[in-house]
Amino acid sequence: MSRTTKHALLSATALVSLSLAMLAAPGAAAAADAPQPWADASLSADQRADLLVKSMTLAEKLKLVFGYFGTDASYKNFQRPPASLAYSAGFIYGVPRLGIPNQWETDAGVGVATQRSPTPRERTTLPSGVATAATWNPDLAFAGGAMIGNEARLSGFNVQLAGGVDLQREPRNGRNFEYGGEDPLLAGTIVGKEIAGIQSNHIISTVKHYAFNDQETNRNSIDVKIGDQAARTSDLLAFQIAIETGHPGSVMCGYNRTNGVYNCESDYLLNQVLKTDWGFQGYVMSDWGGTHSTIPAANNGLDQESGFPFDLSPYFSDALKEAVQDGYVGSARLDDMDHRILRSMFENGLFDDPVTGDHATTIDYDAHQKTAQADEEQAIVLLKNTGDLLPLSAHAQRIAVIGAHADVGVLSGGGSSQVYPRGGMVVPNEGPDGFPGPMVYFPSSPLKAIAARTKAAVTYDNGKDLAAAAKLAADSDVVIVFATQWTGEGLDMKDLSLPNNQDALIAAVAKANPKTVVVLETGGPVLTPWAGSVGAILEAWYPGSGGGEAIGRVLTGEVDPSGHLPATFPASLDQLPRPVLDGVDDHSGHPHTDYDIEGAAVGYKWFDLKGLKPLYPFGYGLSYTHFSYAGLSGGQDGGRIHAQFTVRNSGSVEGWATPQVYVSPAAGGWEAPKRLGGWKKLDLAPGASASVDVTIDPRLLAVFDSASKTWKIAEGDYRLILAQSAADPVQTVTIHLGARTLDVRGR
Ligand code: BGC
Known about the structure:
Layout: H1 3-6, H2 19-22, H3 28-31, H4 45-55, H5 58-64, E1 66-70, E2 88-92, E3 103-107, H6 129-135, H7 138-154, E4 159-161, H8 184-199, E5 204-210, E6 223-225, H9 228-232, H10 235-246, E7 250-253, E8 257-258, E9 261-262, H11 267-277, E10 283-286, H12 295-299, E11 305-308, H13 318-325, H14 331-347, H15 365-379, E12 381-385, E13 398-402, E14 410-411, E15 441-442, H16 446-451, E16 457-461, H17 466-474, E17 478-485, H18 502-512, E18 516-522, E19 536-539, H19 547-556, E20 592-594, H20 604-610, E21 627-637, E22 640-649, E23 655-657, E24 660-665, E25 675-679, E26 682-684, E27 689-696, E28 703-705, E29 710-713, E30 716-725, E31 728-737, E32 740-742
Parallel strand pairs: 1-11, 3-4, 4-5, 5-7, 6-8, 6-20, 7-10, 13-16, 13-17, 17-18, 18-19
Antiparallel strand pairs: 1-2, 2-3, 8-9, 12-19, 14-15, 21-22, 22-27, 23-26, 24-25, 24-30, 28-29, 29-32, 30-31
The structure holds beta-D-glucopyranose.
């Protein structure tokens, strides 16, 4: 859905004056020199926020809870606030009299995005979020977050709308590339680390889109039905872990409804789960167009309306003032909204280390490109490698590179998270004219990276003419076909097939030369009907600013492919809980979807439960070396459950092992036979071995009890399964656990 369509419902009458934001505070001039006790950095963020809220007028309090879009919208007769940054996502006025800085907001999770513009900011992009999850490497996630947060800060932004952790329940979801895959522990950990990296730059990050915003079809209205226990054990657990790991200053509530109520006015999601049960002390901002009321939204936990004029009405402007004056929203609640916003601003350094405008010329792009490349190198998943076709043989004399603009660059995902490359568009005029277009390729050429690493003659063909591509393939020693699936915000895939006749291209090339390697640049899972006739397959996701180099290094064996799937690749749509995406042809205004079908059995858990064999399982990924595992034992120490074992690189090249530990109750009774309990990613030289200790979060051994809001571990035997993927166990040990009850935060 385009931004225009998204807001088509906004009536002209809803355009109110922006007078509130422009209002001078009473006594503004007189107070300029007054002492500012909240400036004392030795006080806690809470104390400072308290002091500040007490000094604010009603008009000032209202300013902080109302955000603007940072981009002109002529179709709404809207001009961005003059102090906002051009073509940015959002802006909130500060209060100069009290030293409260403006908030300048930018998307998103892979870097500093720009709304569609003739002169976009040109910045570094990380590989897609799902790619970073495929690294299974929290340190890389932190480093990537720190890098994009640095670019945000140096671009003049102090709030980054990053940290997408909606679970991949729906492989057709057009935004899966922004998220962390299907498992709450993996997604929550990786996204949480990214958030921590972003905030290490003294700016705020969000985590989004809270919650169950797992498909784009009818995203503004779809009603997700899910029971509390299933919710807390799946999508909500991913958010809970991301928040515990990353401590984001803000949570962005998503567009959809949950159990009949819009997320941004859901007492259950906002007041009960987030703020009370989890003790979240930051603020909740709405997604752009995600606020639907004044009084219910304010009283049910929304702290800041975002992106005026996206909503039908400016609910948190004059209407909120009236609601407070008339007592429908208590003044204590408005104080709480401001307290939460200011607390996060203090906590994350927005007062003590303020952004000082645009210093983008000082960004160290070379270093940042290396950070993005390092991420991609560990994100690439080797799905197939028959007869050791990879790494490319030094004896190959003629290598064909075919398709997907691999001569000039690598693809990225579309929508509000779109980062634009330095040096402009290497592939202009592809993809839709409107949102979520354009289709953007980053100028990191796989062809050049391959050619630089081989003595072979490397020839490129664009793959448009199947006969010509097949001819080149037949005349080559090895063929590398690149295939893309462009996905973007607001658009779900109709199925999981590669678009634009690429399956036929791959089949034709493989028929001409079975020594064919397929490199996929996709937003998520796709079908590979030609898998049996090609020699090797790499999933490279959206590879980011250093993606061409990373692909070249993996193909030639300079670096071992060490990515593992963070989401199941289904063999067909029939295997999914919803073979047909809900709401596709529903124009009722109240489309709905039933997550209780699978409950918490998301992804591999569903496949396990139903005994289905996927195309490629969760956790799967091959390597150029071999790892052997031994000595698995389970133990407990002070309530923590451990799995210990040794891993050895028994092959002949250096590589990264990713041993995974799944947990499973002997007596059953969970949503699915097993859950991921933990993992380690470690670098091993050939012949080297290491002792590994994986600690398992006790919540992953428990069942959530909604009545008492506790996690209950039942007494009994539990299997700890050491595995190389969800479908490849290598060793199992059984431990006995006593009954135990943990509070709602898992303590
Ligand atoms: C997206 C958010 C984004 C916001 C601001 C919305 O359409 O869902 O992820 O942060 O726009 O651009």
